[in-house]
Amino acid sequence: MANGIDREVAFAEDARGGRGECVVQSESNRALDRTEDPAWPDQRYAWFVVIVLFLGSVLSFMDRQIIALLVADIKADLGLNDFEIGLLQGPPFGIFYAVMSVPLALLADRGNRRNLIVAGMTFWSLATAACGLAGSFWHLFLARIGVGSGEACLSPCAYSMISDLFRQRLLPLAMSVFTMGNLSGVGLAMIVGGAIIGWARALGGLQVPIVGDVAPWQLAFLLIGLPGVLLAVVVRLLREPVRRGHATPESASLAAFGKFVLAHRRTFATLFASFTMLVLVAYGNFAWVPSFFMRRFGWSASEAGAMYGMVVAIAGTGGALIGGWLASHLAGRGHVDAPYRATMLMSLPLAPLAVCVFVLAPDADWALAWFVPYQICSAAPAGLAATAMMTITPNPMRAKISSAYLFFSNFLGLSIGAAAVGFLTHNVFADDGKVGLSLLVVNLVGAPLAVLAILGGMRSYRESVTAMRT
Questions:
Q1: Are 368 and 224 members of one domain?
Q2: Residue 459 is assigned to a structural domain of this protein
Q3: pTM value surpassing 0.90
Q4: Residue at 399 is within a domain
Q5: Which of 144, 239, 309, 428 could form a disulfide with 187 if both were Cys (CB 3.0 to 4.6 A apart)?
Q6: Count of domains forming the chain
């Protein structure tokens, strides 16, 4: 599928490989006074950049999700309830992630994306470590704001950079590899965090120079956060990719962006709505499934972290690859709505599988066994939202459309998902042991709404793709 507005597609022979390659020229880009695109970079270096950005994604999700494994410890030390924990996991991170993604995307479409990532990565890593110094709800709340604000830079900048490094035929795979970092990060947060907590508890307390005595949950934040500062140094050594389809200031303006989005308003409205619902469900699960296993089946934090982390890291990564493969397979069969269609097909089983995991499973082994196919289906759309957006968005607007998507998906999905589960457990069921029912409600509402939004948007998405090709 081709990127851009009002594109004319011609086929030229690849001089080096003798392959027919799609050369795209945009009517709108002709007005941008741009010269011919530069040669593609060495693909070995391009994949190295993707791996570094993948590691950044891993660390970002470790930093934001480690709190899910520390619920019991934080509640005991700070005297909090489930709703307050849900608020810490969702709104301070999600709202500021969403709000900060807007100005950062404007900078990314005009400035140096690598340097933005370096600054953001350093900031969110230090903010994660600051969570380990918190002694009250509000201290932890402010530190979580810092984590969300810093992490807002990564995805818009990475999506834009990767789009300038790979030809169209390799772009979906590169995007999928980068977004797999989300799932790997959640899994590693559980595995590493659980190991750190078990180690710290075995020590019976630990004293850190300058900081003083720290609780096991505080030590987890400190150790998880600081490696990001080292990775920021590696990112600084990367080269800023040459932009393809260089634009005049007018083409990168908010007015041009608004005109583009308005022309495809139904496509973007349904795309944002469907994936926001899936984000809401996913973050509700990320935040509370470890607590579900600990409360219902008596697992320790280390056990829950190890088992849940392995499922998310392995089944989740596999699911993301399956989603990318399915979309490519459907595209090869002529379905121009392949990202939407693949997302719908993989989302249909989520609600019934959630019933099996959270209600019908008689023991932990069965719950974990059912959670494997659930996680595969849940993770399948991981790279498809970015693929769908980059496919129909011209270069000067890619970071902005990514930011718009991240604004809605995080402002609503991330902020509400974790808080909704905590609210239902504390205020509706009034029993911490019924967190599984709260998770079930969120799944039974969010997943079907996502499917309905996809069904409502498939036709308009096909029309948008067709418009890009004519």
A1: yes
A2: yes
A3: no
A4: no
A5: 309
A6: 2
pLDDT band at 248 (very low <50, low <70, confident <90, very high): low
Strand-pairing partners, residue 12, are: 21
Pick the most confident of 110-119, 315-324, 383-392. Answer: 110-119
Q: Do 86 and 203 have their domain in common?
A: yes
- Return the pLDDT at 195: 80
Burial of 395-405, coded b for 16+ CB within 10 Å and e otherwise, reads bbbbbbbbbbb
Average pLDDT, integer, range 330-335: 85
> Based on the domain organization, do 424 and 308 belong to the same domain?
yes
Q: Which domain holds residue 7?
A: 1-37
Judge if 17 and 156 occupy the same domain: no
Do 104 and 32 reside in the same domain of the chain?
Answer: no
74 shares its domain with 13? no
pLDDT band at 388 (very low <50, low <70, confident <90, very high): confident
In a domain, 404, yes or no: no
Confidence of residue 235 (pLDDT cuts 50, 70, 90): very high
Q: Is the CB of residue 375 less than 8 Å from the CB of residue 282? A: no
